[in-house]
Design brief:
The protein is of the alpha/beta class. It is 40% helix and 17% strand. The strands form two sheets. A seven-stranded mixed β-sheet has the order 1-2-4-3-5-11-6, sandwiched between helices. It has a four-stranded antiparallel β-sheet with strand order 8-9-7-10. α3 links the parallel β3 and β4.
Length: 472
């Protein structure tokens, strides 16, 4: 029943449609919660393959879920399709060249991520139907991963309550089981309100919101010396109070991203940042209001699923690239610094090589020194056994959230890696459906991890999906 070759052929049979969809989504880059055209592409593909569709999950208009099959466990494949602002870039170029000045771009490869996850779901669905194997395949189209925490809102709404295993992947430099490491993260706006006045004739009557914002920045910077070294706090000023220096600024707003290794540590840091904002407001006789935009937990690993995935990836082998793929990757590598290339090898605990593309599987037990970000798949991992593939869609060393990723987002090498990731994910889904012990072990592993610290959503009551967050 566990016919991997037959399953992988089902993926091959459908790959061209999904590659073309990935390229269309690449060409319509939409940022957090604005992915109207991108989700329409995913919905149309789900309809084409006969999935039962649910839209607007967790009151998020750009989310979609498709389900196929009957009975048995529920295997969820998680996809994304949001882009990043300011990363517009022509495909296939080896230097910066924007398609649209200041436009959006798929600088994290989510056009590939969504298409690859959907390809895995389609391949497994078709195989189960042909073989008469019980099981439900579910595709989750998840928007706003880049700071919008859509999956955390979906978890809170119960969208994953009946899922048995969740599988996803992410574009990367290497072929590996993705380390289950991410930082808990809260995004919060601090809105300062003061009093306008003539900055020359009556400055004593004004109370500057911008002064408060700047004092908050000073306070946060001093706090950095007295917080855990693996925590991160960074910000973006959204409103400076106007363009007239002769008017005391009556309003100002800054968005902070506050990260820590676990949820308690992150919540503690959020409170400390809030106190600094209150202190800045007190010093300037202004008022500050804190508004939580989004929040995610840290990721929990699942050893049984990770080990099973590694065996699958080992059997499948690394993606096969050709000379054209390698030549383009070498040209991209010439635009990167030695430090950028060395840092990704450091993350996987392996020595630097001259290879332009990763055509090997990173050993499961390698000693890593990863650089850690945040992701909303973390919240799924607290309620469902979850695992992810990393697949080499870019030249080794390519820094993400840059034009370099966008330039490679439609390359043949990226397509090959996407299809390979889909095969690995589909095969793991089949293994779970046909091996009750694996399913039981994965659930037991999650239960052990959450026995003492049950999942509590980092999203406080009253915090709703920030559908307008991309407006600034």
């Amino acid at each position: 029943m566990n016919d991997r070759q037959g399953l992988w052929q089902k993926v091959e049979d459908e790959k061209q449609r999904l590659i073309e969809m990935s390229d269309r989504v690449w060409a319509m880059p939409e940022v957090c919660y604005t992915e109207v055209r991108s989700v329409a592409e995913h919905k149309a593909e789900l309809q084409h393959h006969g999935f039962r569709i649910t839209e607007g999950v967790a009151d998020i208009p750009t989310s979609v879920v498709g389900e196929a099959g009957e009975g048995g466990p529920v295997i969820a494949f998680l996809g994304e399709y949001d882009a990043l602002p300011g990363l517009s870039q022509e495909a296939g170029m080896t230097q910066y060249s924007a398609v649209e000045a200041g436009g959006n771009g798929h600088g994290c490869g989510h056009n590939l991520l969504g298409a690859g996850a959907l390809l895995a779901a389609v391949g497994l669905k078709n195989f189960l139907a042909e073989k008469g194997i019980a099981g439900r395949v579910r595709y989750y189209g998840c928007p706003a991963e880049e700071g919008g925490a859509a999956k955390a809102f979906m978890v809170r709404a119960g969208a994953f309550d009946d899922v048995d295993v969740a599988i996803s992947w992410h574009p990367y430099s290497f072929w590996e089981v993705a380390p289950a490491l991410s930082l808990a993260n809260t995004r919060a706006d601090f809105v300062f309100t003061g009093r306008a006045a003539h900055a020359a004739a009556s400055p004593h009557l004004g109370r500057s919101a911008l002064d408060a914002l700047e004092l908050m920045s000073v306070g946060v910077n001093y706090m950095r010396e007295h917080m855990p070294s693996d925590a991160r706090v960074h910000s973006a000023i959204l409103d400076t109070g106007g363009i007239a220096p002769n008017v005391v600024q009556a309003h100002a707003r800054v968005r902070y991203s506050i990260r820590a290794m676990d949820l308690p540590g992150m919540l503690d840091l959020v409170e400390r940042v809030h106190k600094i904002a209150q202190g800045a407001a007190m010093m300037t006789e202004t008022r500050v209001d804190m508004k939580i935009i989004s929040a995610v937990s840290n990721t929990l690993g699942n050893k049984p699923l990770e080990q099973a995935l590694y065996r699958t990836m080992e059997e499948l082998g690394a993606p096969a690239f050709d000379d054209n793929d390698r030549n383009f990757a070498r040209q991209i590598r010439e635009t990167l610094s030695e430090q950028e290339i060395a840092s990704v090898y450091q993350a996987i605990g392996m020595p630097v090589t001259d290879a332009p593309l990763a055509e090997f599987l990173v050993p499961f037990d390698t000693v890593r020194r990863p650089f850690i970000g945040s992701t909303d798949i973390a919240d799924v991992s607290w309620v469902v056994p979850t695992v992810q593939v990393h697949a080499p869609t870019v030249a080794i060393g390519t820094p993400f959230h840059t034009w370099h990723v966008v330039a490679q987002g439609k390359a043949p090498a990226a397509h090959k890696a996407m299809v390979h990731a889909a095969k690995a994910m589909a095969a793991l889904g089949l293994a779970v459906l046909t091996n009750p012990v694996l399913l039981e072990d994965s659930k037991h592993a999650l239960a052990q991890q959450t026995a003492r610290t049950p999942y509590v959503s980092p999203l406080k009551a009253g915090v709703e999906p920030p559908l307008d967050m991309s407006k600034g």
